[in-house]
Amino acid sequence: MSKELVGSAMVVGGGITGMQTALDLADAGYYVYLVEKKPSIGGVMAQLDKTFPTNDCAM
Amino acid sequence: MTLSEVTSISGEAGNFEVEVLKKPRYVDMNKCIACGACVEKCPKKVDNDYNAGLNKRKAIYVEYDQAVPLKFAIDAENCIKLTKGKCGLCEKTCPTGAINYDDKPETVKLNVGSVVLAPGFKAFDPSVFDTYQYTKFPNVVTALEFERLLSASGPTLGHLVKQSKDHEEPKKVAFFQCIGSRDINRCDNGYCSSVCCMYAIKEAVIAKEHSGGDLDCAIFYMDMRTHGKDFERYYEKAKDDGVRFVRSRVHTINPVPETNDLEVRYVDDQGKIQTEVFNMIVLSVGLEIDGSTIELAKTLNIELTPGNFAQTGTFTPVQTSRKGIVASGAFLGPRDIPQSMVDASAAAGVAGEGLAPVRGTMLKEVQTTPERDVFGEAPRIGVFVCHCGINIGGVVDVPSVAEYAKTLPFVEYTADNMFSCSQDTQDKMTQIIKEQNLNRIVVAACTPKTHEPLFQETLMAAGLNKYMFEMVNIRNQDSWVHKESPEKATEKAMDLVRMGVAKVALQNPLAEAQLQVGQTAMIVGGGLSGMAAAETLALQGYETHIIEKSDRLGGNALKLYKTPKGEVIGDKVAELVESINSNDKIKVHLNTTIENVDGFVGNFKARLKENGEEAFLDHGIAVMATGGKAYTPDEYMYGNDPRVLTTLEMDEKMKSDDSLVKDADCAVFIQCVGSREPERPYCSRVCCTHSVDNALELKRRKPDMNVFILYRDIRTYGEKEYLYKEARDAGVIFVRYDLENKPKVSVDNGNLKIVVKDHVLNRDLEIEPDVISLATAIVPNTVNDLAQFYKLPMNDDGFFIEAHAKLGPSEFATDGVFLAGIAHYPKPIEEAIAQGKAAASRAITLLARKEIFTSGQVAKVDPVLCSSCGICVNVCPYSAPSFKTEGPFAGKAEINPVLCKGCGLCVASCRSGAIHHNGFDNDQIFSQIFAVNA
Q1: Does the CB of B880 have a partner CB in chain A at under 8 Å?
Q2: What is the pLDDT of residue A1?
Q3: Which partner from A33, B342, B513, B709 sits 20 to 30 angstroms from A23, CA to CA?
Q4: Closest by alpha carbon to B170, among B129, B139, B125?
Q5: Interface list for A 3-32 with B (CB within 8 A)
């Protein structure tokens, strides 16, 4: 590797996937930049009512 | 970083330079307290995207009440001030001066080691279809709109009504599947969107629940694809609950004159034209990649699939074509929540693989304040009452509650705040606690579920033990439910505060058990998912042991021929095994079984039997990758005729180009052998794709061979759908059969014969195949002993039950134990590998902490009172109590604070009153009860 390693990561997209990736990376000891184009994170899952098979509230 | 987009990435894996464009919010995040005053004044109404355009929001907005960050933003395209230079009402209204119309876009350059792309999907827009007249008839809605109509936070507060002007409740609702999916005539999405069948069933079930059961829901579909864990059961239950399933693609919708109803015309199973009238039609729209994501991929030089998803390899399921950039979620293909969560963790695991040497170098040490010893001090209680904007303050007379609290015993200080959770209020509270020398705090505000940790941090910042705190919920339990009677609500708030004060006065500082996490990982199972987990753990620097009961690594993959993408599985497995064997962080234990496991998270100890010899292995975490096997059929003459094979046997024959396959002129694949049956009511997920792929291979080898696939529903989900189409184009003949009318296999004059009823011709079809391949179910390996050692639950089918069906697919509720591969549910190679990496990633989040603190709110035994009856030992679901074996109190019970979850079962069951619950002790609870009537 020509350049020095950087101990951070960028996650593009703040839906459930992006949030979980960011959490895992941060908990593993890496600094994370989470980039979201909307004013708030949450993505499509925040729009869902309930989730199967347990009919839990999605929020 | 919100309102931000990546514009370019340069550099290479380990050290990228990323340019991010931060768009203006026009609201200062540090000043905005989300009080909502601006929204009331804003005159501009805009379609509300969050509610799928079903209602309006203002030009200054938050997407929804629970949004993170909970800060307003101005929609520059619609704001009157920003577009026309007039208005400015929000600026005048804002109590904190947060509005800034001069906010400018800004480009930031960041250095990062890895990049993860999780841009998600957008719902297909059905406006392009004139057939379904989505834009013309208000009662034709998309599934996302229907979702919002069912939601309690939606525009109708969960009350299902028609979208025509009458707004009556519908009596009959139809769902049309595959809108914008599996369709190359009218849109370009040839793939299956994977999730629509299940969400349609869910919406139908919930709609029926909301409407009290007499609502008629009919789902019009081509193949019902319920291939996820527990989905088939949900499908069967929906049928029992009266949801109708009609196999047909509807071709015409006509309005019924003088009404808002819609007449649906379709061709039924028997080829007859049917018509039926519905009040509402829900279009089950598919998932597709947004144009902006395709642009981003081009900018970043990432290859895409024909469906515009990220191109990845079967054995490198989250790795994009550019090194150092990984993908996750729906960008990898249309998928549901659990699969997205698996990808998410897998992507994190892979993104960290190359960065282990610099782990922790970018983190900042959190400043901690030394804890003040309050032993011997009389209680000095501070009470903070929160307005929560108008949430509480609009109903409860908050200043009076704060004033009242002053009169309570030991209360030295009270205050009321607009938003107690805002950063400036937190700082103020810290200062007050120090200045007033307070030693116990009550916050009367919202729910401890979301906000207790925040206030506990404030206590710690002020040098107090975090348990010297009581949160009183005067929002959810008071102002929200007693909106109609503000006076009584205020009285109740006073009662609740009095109870909180009484309890906290008796609170003592609690210590949290600290425990070291052993930095060694143990993986049970040396198949693909186990090896994938080991690879990620080892590359991230952790010593990893693979326990494999057989004499070689590879598992079921050793029996497979090739992937649908054409990769030869044997070669790929050999590469992976080689990389595992050559990694000095990984130790492989072949011919090894686990005889016993003791201990708990961070400190497990396994007794192994390795090549017949006893050995011990200490490990901090464990991954269950115990896999599964093919069901052995006793139907379709299997075992009675050598020409009847299982799928795995077929793979072997194809690998070796056996004459049974080479000389065959007719081959038949029978699907769902042992799956989706009453005794095994689940779909084995991989068999449709596998058979279709093998059928195609036969056609490639011998184009004039007659190849039949007898199926119930073809479940080639995602981009696997292309294979299904390719097979049809190649002349593979698909014949559907029902569970009640299964194909019959016999031998006639030495020839195999299959009779199956063709539903199109409505008559029996006779086939004389030279070889039959049975798509046998996948059953989990029997691992009852392991389940017992680690206390892991299993479902009725023998698969492990994960921590959460949606959000925790790769871990168990038992701390420190993780889950991957077929042991969770049948899955193809790419998903098994992704889950292996996901389990590793989840494990690393624990290993990286090195030490963990458990809650201070645990049960504790007073050994003097303990009568050694053993009830606590029996009643505890977490095995926390045990009998002391040595010392002055040998024979008395003790509770391991690490294992205790603070549920209180033992406290309630102890007949001697010897068990106390720290933080919820009897005297505290009684003091609250007495305070109610005080």
Answers
A1: no
A2: 43
A3: B513
A4: B139
A5: 3-25, 27-31
**What pTM does this model have?**
0.86
ipTM of the complex, rounded to two decimals:
0.92
Å from B385 to nearest chain A CA?
Answer: 27
Q: With 50 as the cut, is the pLDDT of residue B329 above it?
A: yes
Domain B122-288 of CATH type 3.40.50.11810: no
CB contact under 8 A, B344 and A4: no
Q: Is residue A17 part of a domain?
A: yes
Judge: domain B381-472+481-487, CATH 3.30.450: no
Expressed in percent and rounded to 5, the helix, strand and coil fractions of chain A are: 25, 25, 45
Chain B residues near residue A30 by CB distance under 8 angstroms: 113-114, 351-352, 355, 359, 362
Minimum Cα–Cα distance from A50: chain B residue: B151
Contact assignment for B114 to A10 by CB distance below 8 Å: yes
Inter-chain contact B201–A25, Cβ cutoff 8 Å? no
> What spatial distance separates the first Cα and last Cα of chain A, rounded to whole Å?
43
Q: Is the CATH code 2.60.40 the one for domain B24-104?
A: no
Residues of A in contact with B144 (CB under 8 A): 47
Residue B151: closest CA among chain A residues belongs to which residue?
A49
Spans of all domains in chain B: 24-104, 122-288, 381-472+481-487, 519-627+782-842, 630-779, 859-932
Range of the domain at A26: 9-57
B13 contacts in chain A (CB < 8 Å): 1
pLDDT in tens, B549-563: 999 999 999 999 999
The 10 Å Cβ neighbour count of residue B160 is 20
Q: Do A17 and B340 touch (CB under 8 A)?
A: yes
Q: What percent of chain B has pLDDT over 70?
A: 100
Reported as a pLDDT band with limits 50, 70 and 90, residue A53 is low
| Peptide bond between residue B486 and the one before it cis (omega within 30 degrees of 0) | no
Please name every residue paired with B904 in a beta bridge, in sequence order, or none if there are none.
none
- Cβ distance of A17 and B328 shorter than 8 Å: yes
| B519-627+782-842 CATH pick, 3.50.50.60, 3.40.640.10, 3.30.200.20, 1.10.3630.10 | 3.50.50.60
Total domains present in chain A: 1
Are the beta carbons of B68 and A42 separated by less than 8 Å?
yes
User: Is the Cβ pair B206, A46 closer than 8 Å?
Assistant: no
Rounded mean pLDDT, B339-349: 95
SS (H, E, C) B248-274: CCCCEEEECCCCCCEEEEEECCCCCEE
Instruction: Identify whether A4 is part of a domain.
Output: no
What tens digit of pLDDT does each residue of B151-177 get? 877 888 778 888 888 888 899 999 999
Nearest to B143, CA basis, from B169, B173, B170? B173
Class of domain B630-779: alpha beta
CA neighbor of B683 nearest in space, from B237, B226, B234: B226
3 state SS of B208: helix
Cβ atoms B714, B856 nearer than 8 A: no
One-character DSSP codes across B517-559: --SEEEEE--SHHHHHHHHHHHHTT-EEEEE-SSSSS-GGGGG
Chain B residues 754-813 with CB within 8 Å of chain A: 805-807
Which CATH number applies to B859-932: 3.60.20.10, 3.20.20.70, 3.30.70.20, 3.30.450.20?
3.30.70.20
Contact B352 A28 (CB under 8 A): yes
Q: How many angstroms away from the CA of A7 is the closest CA of chain B?
A: 5
* Cβ distance of B15 and A1 shorter than 8 Å: yes
